[in-house]
Specification:
The protein has about 525 residues and is α/β, with parallel strands linked by helices. The protein has four domains: about 190 residues, DhaL domain (Serine Threonine Protein Phosphatase 5, Tetratricopeptide repeat); about 70 residues, Alpha-Beta Plaits, CATH 3.30.70; about 110 residues, Rossmann fold (3-Layer(aba) Sandwich), CATH 3.40.50; about 100 residues, Hypothetical Protein Tm841, Chain: A,domain 3 (2-Layer Sandwich), CATH 3.30.1180.10. Helices cover about 45% and strands about 20% of the residues. The strands form four sheets. Strands 13-12-9-16-14-15 form a six-stranded mixed sheet, sandwiched between helices. Helix 3 runs antiparallel to helix 4. The N and C termini lie far apart (about 60 Å).
């Protein structure tokens, strides 16, 4: 029989009377290990909300993230730090519908136990809070799922004594009993002769907690096998995508996001707090779900998965290709002349996920994507995830500006190994400073001070570096500030309303102070920005 994580291998200890930080660490690691051993069996039960066969894997990865977060703490971390880290690690690593719900349940326990001694009454309150917070996180709760098991566990321990071991034992027994009843609570489970997959994983988590508290371990936790053959649920109109992302946003913005996502799809779970959230939803329009997150705050670690991949065959183009996102016909033409498949967007907006995905499919079987704007990264990353599901090798470069994308494309070599090409393009983009000039249309506080409508702003690497009154003078000044002794090439891209005086002023200045530098001028026709500047 293997020792549980953090143990010395000794047996015969007395049951714990306090769930202390060391016990929490052992519990998290035992959960991760036990779910890892049961992963395939739980995956085989997965028919709700969609039969994608990954619930066991998702729960394993969720608890593994929590365990690894705790492993990184110093050995003497206190209860508050330990419980906060457990919840935060699970939130960051939560995968799938069940993983996200379990992460919120752990957050509920942490809310109670981080400021408690960890005795039996504290665990009772923690389990009750876990059930409450998990249910509140789900837009449309369904019985016969992990929520049902959490609720039955909370009810079962209400009458337990103050002894920690008794509370844990009753919780484990209640979870196991509730798991068996899920088959009769949800029609799709009954038709397939299975218990709920998420509930099976949660049962192992609760039983692992009891094992740590009572010092009573088993080699393997039981996962009820299906009693009949797999029958795909009759949900032909189910949403086509699973969308997940982490989100930096305030409470009020998340409340509006919940309403918007609930209208877009189903299986909606939003968990977290204190400005960090984990969002999970099934939708037909993945791009709309991501764009909703962008309106609410800053989405990242975006993951999009086909829920019906076999029914959505797509044939990618052949060979190596590059996809570039461009704002402005002139900029689009520059990328097209260099051989990229171009996705057009309006200034200040992001392209649709479907447009980026279609471009990746057209570009080839090995594709580099150039977002060329930080606001496009989430959509580009999501499209890349879908393309990878279809077998395309995709790398999204962190290009923050048009000039970085053009610099990266200039060193693209389809004859190199793909990984080597990606490294070369990324390195070139990273060594390209970017700036632009624009005219303020409202009063605002910037990193260079307060600006007012009509002021000319000079931006370097994303920050306002100068507030001026003349477009030409501002352009000359920020170009000068961007130069270094190693600068070799300056690229100027003019906007739709820019005249020849603007580029002539910058070119004349460069010829006077740095005649060794090559200057390239292109007509970009972008709106909003009279001049884009790149320096390599």
């Amino acid at each position: 029989m293997p020792s549980e994580p953090g143990d010395t291998g000794e047996r015969g200890r007395e049951p714990l009377h306090i769930l202390d930080p060391k016990a929490v660490r052992r519990w998290s690691r035992l959960c991760a290990d036990a779910l890892g051993r049961a992963r395939a069996e739980i995956d085989a039960l997965n028919v709700f909300p969609v039969p994608d066969g990954d619930t066991g894997t998702n729960l394993h990865l969720t608890m593994l993230s929590a365990a690894e977060a705790l492993d990184a703490l110093p050995g003497d971390a206190d209860a508050e730090t330990t419980w906060r880290t457990l919840a935060h690690g699970a939130l960051l690593g939560a995968r799938g519908n069940s993983g996200v719900i379990v992460s919120q349940a752990l957050r509920g326990m942490a809310e109670v136990l981080k400021h408690a001694k960890g005795g039996g009454s504290d665990l009772r309150k923690g389990l009750a809070k876990a059930a409450e917070m998990a249910r509140n996180a789900v837009a449309r709760p369904v019985e016969g799922t992990v929520l049902s098991v959490l609720s039955e566990v909370a009810r079962a321990v209400e009458g337990a004594s103050e002894e920690l071991a008794e509370v844990a034992g009753k919780a484990a027994a209640a979870a196991r009993g509730a798991l068996g009843r899920t088959t009769g609570q949800l029609d799709v489970l009954a038709r397939n002769g299975v218990v709920d997959a998420g509930a099976a994983g949660l049962t192992i988590i609760v039983e692992s907690l009891a094992a740590v508290i009572t010092d009573s371990y088993v080699d393997r936790y039981d996962v009820p096998a299906p009693t009949s053959g797999f029958e795909k649920p009759e949900t032909a109109q189910a949403p086509g995508y699973e969308v997940m992302y982490l989100l930096d946003a305030g409470d009020s913005a998340v409340a509006a996001l919940r309403d918007e996502l609930d209208r877009l799809g189903d299986s909606l779970v939003v968990v977290g707090g204190d400005g960090l959230w984990n969002v999970h939803v099934h939708v037909d329009d993945a791009g709309a779900a991501i764009e909703a997150g962008m309106r609410a705050g800053r989405p990242y670690r975006v993951k999009v998965v086909y829920l019906e991949a076999p029914a959505r065959p797509h044939r990618a183009g052949d060979g190596r290709g590059v996809v570039a996102v461009a704002a402005g016909d002139g900029i689009a033409g520059l990328f097209e002349q260099a051989g990229a498949v171009v996705v057009r967007r309006e200034p200040g907006s992001s392209p649709s996920l479907e447009a980026v995905l279609a471009a990746i499919r057209q570009a080839g079987t090995e594709v580099v994507v150039l977002p060329n704007d930080t606001g496009v990264n989430a959509v580009a990353g999501a499209a890349a995830e879908i393309a990878r599901e279809e077998g395309v090798v995709v790398s999204v470069l962190p290009t923050k500006a048009t000039v970085q994308g053009l610099a990266a494309l200039a060193v693209h070599d389809p004859l190199r190994r793909f990984d080597d090409d990606v490294v070369a393009m990324t390195d070139t983009a990273g060594h390209t400073r970017h700036g632009h000039v624009w005219v303020a249309d409202r009063e605002a506080m910037t990193s260079a001070g307060m600006c007012r409508p009509g002021d000319v702003l000079g931006v370097i690497d994303g920050d306002v570096a100068l507030i001026g009154t003349s477009v030409e003078d501002t352009a000359v000044e920020i170009t000068s500030r961007m130069l270094s002794v190693s600068s070799e090439l300056v690229t100027l891209i003019t906007g739709v309303d820019a005249g020849t005086r603007l580029t002539r002023a910058v070119k004349d200045h460069l010829d006077a102070v740095r005649p060794d530098i090559e200057t390239l001028i292109y007509k970009g026709d972008q709106g909003g920005y009279p001049l884009l500047i790149g320096i390599e």
